[in-house]
């Protein structure tokens, strides 16, 4: 594909590239990010890691974190990234040409995700480098595949499998490719070579896992929680980018999170499985439980599954960045504006190059196999930037081949024109896929409101609730579900006035040009109490096909319509809207739960549908998530006894789930059992102090308790938290002062009283608390 390069030129260029890459990474991102593996290594070395936890982590990467502290490991990863550049060059030079290999190495050297994940203490960068190194050795060893190269390649591929088990798929495919390359040689010798490569790789993968197993007794069948990861990437709510684990698991994880519980979601997945299938379920069988839930989804909703796979494939091939780690997102923002290569741009160039190579019948078998394996694994589980990292070298090679072809055809206008047309079509691909445009639009919305997140956190820490509320209004304008992901204690996040300001800001700064804009405007209008404005916007977004998700909370215009109609008393219309949601994307947790609760509250004509929806709800979703979601939906439909039944069932399995205690408190309030409701509310606040618990459902309970036990410190403490969260700062300040005087020995009350004494109000008009209604009894919590 090109003329030979001058002798001695390649080593010098590679050396410069490697040194420049390491220096660039260490200057831009000198520190290590993400502490899950260092925390887990400390648990392992101190003997505090449980056998079940041992299977949650990459065996080889856990060993590396035991051997090296974060800073040296971060340096090792930068050096590994530089070695990966050499592997990219060797692959390109042996399979295509030296100029292609050099250009591809240069592209990888300045690609943003490569630099980011060298500084991130997750195994993805090493997986990429180990696979690249092995494939480079195999490409170098062609056509005879001497044993020493096969052994080295097998060791590297095995270590990749020990770093993440999906690396074993590359081992199998590489073995198949080598056997195909040797198909004209003696069968016995070829089979022995294949057995050597495969056997070496399997042993290298097995050994680190055995070391961890011998240390903590971990279960090999549950390594890295394959079933749980498969489930969180294949749910009805899935957008195609990132994982959608059950919200209840994420909320419970936030309640328990600590350095003693790194990545505790894996343990919670096992706990939730056992709540339904039995406490004696082994770790391996808990993974099978989640695999069955995923299979049930595929059987119940095959159309939704196919749509999800299509979206994942598009995001993997040419989607925008999707970092699932907060620290990495912040670091990427720090690198914005620098002349680095975006992964999406590299992917689009790579797609153009691959299409051109195939059209011109160039031999790219090994690279395509590697790319296909990386794609299949990410699409089978879920797509995030960490998992897309493996494909970037392949895209760089194809993009470089396209560039070299264009250079060599510079005097052939017809070929150049065809290349230009193909490139233009590929670069325009994201515009043809609405769900890809939605992610890009979300990024644009966030940028349009500035960066108020840091201002919000600082203002809350300093008790400046007026500034915090203004920052929250901007964040909510960009994304109405900000309150699900941030602690907002002291900000009146439920206030219709705040929602109205956010809605006005959203329309003014962000417009109503896209279906996402329409949906967000409709949701904010609904929260502001303006369903007359929300319904047209929601219908327009629904007609345009917008759908999103935050964990298993559906960002669904049809559910905005359902909520508005229910608030207006049109119960039949609300149920019909929920049915429309399920027709568009079947099996989603909140739509199913809403439909079940609605069918229960209507006539017996809906009974057949109710039973069908209820069966599907518990077939696709785990027992605890399904009951919690159904309890929330029953609460909205006014079935307080049913909501209490669901809450009690969840708490019988796991007694300390804070959000379910809150659900129970709201159900008890609806039933007029205020004394029990106050105790449940107090329990929720105690278990998860930073959570944004809704205050509206508990207004009657707090008002009744204050009316009947106004001098009880426990009542005053709960009421203080309640009114602070509702935005009634003056009332909260007064209650806190009274409580601290009645219980001077309570240091927590004294601290809250002092904080509130110095705090500044939000400046948002907040309705006064309602007067207490008639009640049977009220006691202190």
Give structural attributes.
781 residues, mainly alpha, Serine Threonine Protein Phosphatase 5, Tetratricopeptide repeat, two-stranded antiparallel sheet, 40 helices, 1% strand, globular, disordered C terminus
Task: Describe the protein in words.
- With 781 residues, the chain is mostly helical.
- The protein has a domain at 651-771: Alpha Horseshoe (Serine Threonine Protein Phosphatase 5, Tetratricopeptide repeat), CATH 1.25.40.
- It contains 40 helices and two strands.
- A two-stranded antiparallel ribbon has the order 1-2.
- A hairpin with a 2-residue loop joins strand 1 and strand 2 (553-555).
- It is globular.
- 54% of the residues are buried.
- Residues 775-781 have low confidence and may be disordered.
- Residues 758-781 are annotated as: Disordered.
- Keywords: Cell membrane, Glycosyltransferase, Membrane, TPR repeat, Transferase, Transmembrane, Transmembrane helix.
- It is found in: Cell membrane.
- Its main location: membrane.
Lay out the secondary structure.
Blueprint (H helix, E strand, L loop, with lengths): L8 H20 L7 H10 L5 H4 L4 H9 L2 H26 L2 H12 L2 H7 L5 H18 L5 H17 L3 H15 L5 H30 L9 H8 L13 H10 L8 H13 L5 H18 L1 H17 L7 H10 L7 H17 L5 H16 L4 H4 L3 H17 L4 H15 L6 H15 L3 H10 L3 H14 L17 H15 L4 H13 L3 H13 L4 E3 L2 E3 L1 H11 L3 H14 L4 H13 L5 H14 L2 H15 L2 H14 L4 H13 L3 H14 L11 H10 L4 H13 L3 H14 L4 H12 L23
Helix pairs in contact: 1-5, 1-6, 2-4, 4-11, 5-6, 5-8, 6-21, 7-17, 8-9, 8-10, 9-10, 9-11, 10-11, 10-19, 12-15, 13-14, 14-15, 15-16, 16-19, 18-21, 18-22, 24-25, 25-26, 26-27, 27-28, 27-29, 28-29, 29-30, 30-31, 31-32, 31-33, 33-34, 33-35, 34-35, 35-36, 36-37, 37-38, 38-39, 39-40
Main location: membrane
Organism: Myxococcus fulvus
Keywords: Cell membrane, Glycosyltransferase, Membrane, TPR repeat, Transferase, Transmembrane, Transmembrane helix
